[in-house]
Amino acid sequence: MNTEILGVILQWVALVVLCYPLGRYIAKVYRGERTWLDFMAPLERGIYKVCGIREDEEMDWKQFLKALLMVNLFWFFWGMLLLVFQGYLPMNPDGNPGQTPDLAFNTCISFMVNCNLQHYSGESGLTYFTQLFVIMLFQFITAATGMAALGGVFKAMASKSTHTIGNFWNLLMKSSTRILLPLALVVGFILIIEGTPMGFDGKMKLTTLEGQEQLVSQGPAAAIIPIKQLGTNGGGYYGVNSSHPLENPTYLTNMVECWSILILPMAMVFALGFYLKRKKLAYSIFGVMLFAYLVSVGINTYYETKGNPMISAMGIDQQAGAMEGKETRLGPAATALWSCTTTVTSNGSVNGMHDSTMPLSGMMEMLNMQINTWFGGVGVGFMNYYAFLIIAVFISGLMVGRTPEFLGKKVEAREMKIATIVALAHPFVILIGTAVACYYWVYNPAFVEAEGGWLNNPGFHGFSEMLYEYTSASANNGSGFEGLGDNTYFWNFTTGLALIISRYLPIVGQVAIAGLLAQKKYIPESAGTLKTDTATFAVMTFSVIFIVAALSFFPALTLGPIAEYFSIY
């Protein structure tokens, strides 16, 4: 147990220490300054030429969003086509069939919005071809899309007055070639050395300890796992994700993968400080996010290492912690850290079953996604925080009797309306979706039964399973309480709709806010200017986030994990 706790501390230190220089490097990339990866420029120019793109052409926020949405729409149709017909495509040694249209829709949308809400098992639901040319491709594209959007927001925030926010295609390309690809190569080599498969052979036959034969899938796992973690997509190459011994073979790979999930979201906060030349602002934002993250890590680690009192009452030793749903080679502390890391981001990969975590651990996992601003996905994490920054600035300005200003720009009614819609859309989608599912469960049991019954766990935990599914979809996370039977028409389409709304509405809204503010006249700072890089304002922002985001879900959490907690303790 002490070794596990030490591993948790070591990973946390590695994240905090390395995210600062990486943030400086990212800021240089987006500002167009010289970096050691400038040798990628000829490749980038070649791609621009083939695609007919003028990478130096500035875009306003509407043109920027048009390019972003159009490229995502194109890749959606690409993914749908390949997933439905994958049974007829090459690189399918195991003979896996194509996906049904409803499942292909959910899968395609899920990975298109940087989520991994998998209603299939990776070994049987995909082929090597679609793993590479749909899943891995999307994991680069969607991560780079979020980073490019944030790059545009950076430029808008840094400019005193401008009608343009950069070139989407240029930011998309550099995010892929200068940031994501180099990091993925490093992580990939570590995984290969540690035993993660990288090849195109079919299933291998193994003899188990019981003397039985078992077929185990292989394939290009080591190529896909690094970018799924770094890009905060998290889709499992194998059905059980990173709890699989080939996807996550050793404690070292566990530490490297867990580090990979959070390093870029952390670094993007410091990139903001370097890009804007406002490091104090970055420090305050980072402090708020880190505090919330560590609180959740502390709670989950405590409950998962303490054990399950219901099992203790049966006379079973709980010194190893709550081991249900955990890998013995990893332990409960490593799973607790991963469960928080994957839910404060939009990653969603797991190294243990969240459905089996203790009630308050499950609550923290859901709450991290429901708040959806503590680091978050690559790029879009800070953008979610940005909406609450605008709200906090507006409220603070009213409290002190000053016109609300942020970075020298007046925050007016139009920006507040957009920020409010973005902030409230998230709980709306989650709570309405859960309410509809509960209605069908109670009042239309024949429909539920026709779809396989949905829930393996009735009562408080069953409600938590449905709440978790919509929370995960709306946060573009993808993890799940897998006691829910979700490969049905109802869950595929309703969660698919939640994925679309929750991905693109915030991006459109936040880029629009940044573009609108960028067009306004710059107001120099004075004695009456509200300081946004102080501890006081950081506390104010945290309070706004907690009141608007967290307390919106308190009644629902009371019906689920909190009620389950009191039924156990």
Q: What kind of sheet is the major sheet?
A: 2 strands, antiparallel
Overall average pLDDT: 90
Low-confidence stretches: none
Approximately what portion of the residues adopt beta-strand conformation?
Answer: under 5%
Order of helices and strands: HHHHHHHEEHHHHHHHEEHHHHHH
**Lateral arrangement of strands in the main beta sheet:** 1-2
Q: What would the principal axes of the Cα set say about the shape?
A: globular
Instruction: Give the structural class.
Output: mainly alpha
> What Rg, in angstroms, do the CA atoms define?
23 Å
Q: What's the count of strands?
A: 4
Helix content: 55-70%
Helical region count?
A: 20
Distance between the termini: 23 Å
Provide a brief overview of the structure.
The protein has a domain at 377-568. Helix content is 65%, strand content 2%. The chain is built from 20 helices and 4 strands.
General description of the model:
The chain has about 575 residues and is mainly alpha-helical. The chain has a domain of about 190 residues. The protein is built from 20 helices and four strands. Helix 10 packs antiparallel against helix 12, helix 10 packs across helix 19 and helix 15 packs antiparallel against helix 18.
